[in-house]
Amino acid sequence: MNTRSNRIQIVSENLSDIKVMALSWKEKNEVVGFIPTMGNLHEGHLSLIRKIRDYGATKTIVSIYVNPKQFGPGEDYAEYPRTPDEDIKLLEKLNVDCVFCPSDEEIYPPNAESQVMIDNLSLMHELCGKYRPGHFDGVLLVVNRLLNIIQPNIAIFGQKDYQQYVLIKNMVQQLFLSTEVLMAPIIRENDGLAMSSRNSYLNSNQRSKALHLYKSLISTSRKIRENKIDYKSILQNEIERLNKIGLSVDYLELRTSNDLSSVKKYKKMNGKYVLLGAIKLGKTRLIDNIIL
Ligand code: PAF
């Protein structure tokens, strides 16, 4: 066990340490809550810790691992911000019980599976999957590995990565894993921009443009709810408007909130739909969504 801190247990090497610790907690009837992250923690991540406690976790484990398999060629794996010392200080303040910082060798030993064997859902290749081929294969691979090592009672994911949450929930069901998968709401900056480690890539001009994504989700969802014209025309007009003001839109789509399937016709019903958007500003790709 690594002891860089005296208030928090930091397991950085030995997988059996974390396995034994989580198991011994469960034997004592503790509810083990797990928050997987790629580090560079911000208020969005910290809210996940608070939320999982609200859901009943009595012990919390946070993993910090920048997963190479979920980044495509030419994406920001090398630049992704890595701030482990600051992260651990923040986690100490929140009295997290254990931080797990595995190495690539532990997560991907030579004999490890290279793909999670689940029914190939078309959703893997839609929305973000269409623009980031292989991304969700990498996410499912690492999350499956982490859930198998820790075997937490509960794991929590942020709503900002809505598609990731739906795919993980599906994987957990298909593989009969014993973890309950929960989602926590998006945490936003004061002006509404969804918090993200990638916001730090934006220059001031891009930062002010980025806000248009959230504003657009709000105004578009209002128009869809008013239901005067077909929702697809509303989305098409909005994509054209956003592209004109300099946001390069990957997608702006209305899907059902339970499984992200396509929507033929919008029928007013609270919580039934989610409006999801992804844009690029220079090299930075941002996503956001709202449930309506
Ligand atoms: O959402 C993230 O930060 C990552 O995709 C996750 C779930 C930690 C897997 O690497």
Please sum up the structure shown.
The protein is of the alpha/beta class and 292 residues long. The chain contains nine helices and nine strands.
Strand residue percentage: 15-25%
Ions and ligands: pantoate
| CATH architecture type of the largest domain | 3-Layer(aba) Sandwich
Low-confidence stretches at least 5 residues in length (pLDDT < 50)? Answer: none
**Broad structural category:** alpha/beta
What is the CATH fold-level name of the largest domain?
Rossmann fold
Measured distance between first and last alpha carbons: 46 Å
The largest sheet is: 6 strands, parallel
Please give the radius of gyration in angstroms: 20 Å
Q: Strands of the largest sheet, in order across it?
A: 1-4-3-2-5-6
Average residue pLDDT: 94
Tell me the number of structural domains: 2
DSSP strand tally: 9
| Tally of contiguous helical segments | 9
* Shape summary: globular
Order of helices and strands: EHEHEHEHHHEHEHHEEE
Protein architecture, described:
The chain is of the alpha/beta class and about 290 residues long. The protein folds into two domains: about 1-185, HUPs (Rossmann fold), CATH 3.40.50.620; about 195-290, Pantoate--beta-alanine Ligase, Chain: A,domain 2. Helices cover about 35% and strands about 20% of the residues. The protein is built from nine helices and nine strands. Strands 1-4-3-2-5-6 form a six-stranded parallel beta sheet, sandwiched between helices. A three-stranded antiparallel beta sheet has the order 7-8-9, covered by helices on one side. Helix 6 packs across helix 7 and helix 8 (about 205-225) runs antiparallel to helix 9. The radius of gyration is 20 Å and the shape is globular. The chain starts with 8 loop residues before the first strand and ends with a strand. Pantoate binds near residues 37, 67 and 164. Pantoate binds near residues 37 and 139.
